[in-house]
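URGENT: need a sanity check before tomorrow's submission.

F., can you look over the Sulfate ABC transporter substrate-binding protein record below? I want to be sure the sequence and structure line up before it goes out.
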Amino acid sequence: MPATTALRRSLAVLAALPLLALAACGYGSQAKDDGTARVAAGAEKIDGLDSVRIGYFGNVTHATALVGNEKGFFQKELGATQARYAIFNAGPSEIEALNSGSIDIGWIGPSPAINGYAKARGKNLRIIGGSASGGVKLVVNPEKIRSVEDVEGKRIATPQLGNTQDVAFLNWAAEQGWKVDPQSGKGDVTVVRSDNKVTPDAYKAGSIDGAWVPEPTASKLVAEGGKVLLDEASLWPDEKFVITNIIVSQTFLEKHPKVVEAVLRASVETNKWIKANPEEAKAAANRQLAADTGKALPAKVLDPAWKSIKVTDDPLAATLDAQAQHAVKAGLLDEPDLEGIYDLTLLNKVLQAAGEPAVDDAGLGVK
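Structure tokens as predicted:
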């Protein structure tokens, strides 16, 4: 059996989970429901809806959701329609929850959004807004790797086979002229698929020489003596690339557009507040992380991680399309039909009302 065929068959098994994971995950519990937010006295339900179920990861790359929850921005806009939150640590489980109706709206990364949409043949979700850019780095052992050329022949961790960072590293390695079998990870560079939770320990033990990982794992490695060799942002136009989007169930969007609009309005308000109050926002995010995961991040990890992530209302659609093409080129994904994956109508309505410019869907919007 050809290697590419074998790989795609193995990924088909992952698709049943469903499909490729995003590992800006790896922190937080599996679909941990932390209950409901407080509703202001005298508030009214939107369209008579009792609650909206919102999913996100217990991770700083989901800063909008963390801060919006902790500071009550979502609940304020939802009135008496209660915001219920579920915390995930893996992209496939969040897509599965969206598909089953366990959540209505979610903060999630590009790979599970792309693959979830492709697997469902465009029938399950829409990307309705952006949330964050950046926050991914190649951190290496400075005693073994002092330059890009030194990466050849070394063992580099990525969070999971076919996840967003795995695809990015394989694409970067190919651009250096190195050959790597995407399924086994063997080649001119050895790719070690390692859960974000254990990667710092693997680094300390010397079983990996570096890692291409999202925050806060990258900053945890730096705290263990690692050095940032490359910030992925440097590889993208204007140093912007999507790391977190907002998705919604198509059924929920059709039935409850006013509720979706309220959540997007809260997201835009949250991002504006984060930009205006970065230190307060960082503290709020860490308080919510502690509530969601049981453990706050230490300053030596939180401070650099927070600095490298940029909140944004723009979903940076062109970069999502590019990431999909990188996965195709690496042999990890059949050419997906992404037409209709975006519906930015409500977001642009909210942005216009806020006096902000509209954002673009890179030709991948609903027709």
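My own read: Residues 1-32 have pLDDT under 50 and may be disordered. DSSP finds 14 helices and twelve strands in the chain. If you see anything odd, call me.
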